[in-house]
Amino acid sequence: MGFEIQVDEEDKLRQAYRTRVPGLDIRINTKKGPLDFPVSDISASGFAFEDNPRGYSSGLEFTFDLLLSKKLFLGDLKAKVMRVLDRGIIGCNFMEMDRRQEIKLDKLVLEVQKRLIELRKAKRAAE
What we know:
Blueprint: H1 9-13, E1 24-30, E2 33-42, E3 46-50, E4 61-68, E5 71-84, E6 89-95, H2 99-126
Antiparallel strand pairs: 1-2, 1-4, 2-3, 3-6, 4-5, 5-6
């Protein structure tokens, strides 16, 4: 007895649950000085941010800090640009994270997931 599973191409792009975290920014040190960009979404494996005008291209590697409510959450992280969308959204994967950084990031994403689940349950209960 055999079976086959097919996955859409779009599903292959996602490696982990992505969520939006209010107040989450990245800070990149550039030749013009530090620049902050709001994070559109984040997961344990990567993140997306908006850059207009687009100064990033696929394959570019860079170092950045992750800020939560304008305070340093994780510093000296590395990322690689995986895709640049027409709307100015830059999709990146984390690179070379140590175990402590991975744990802290996983905890952040998990806490946001828990809150979203609680909000959905409360909304259903109110209906």
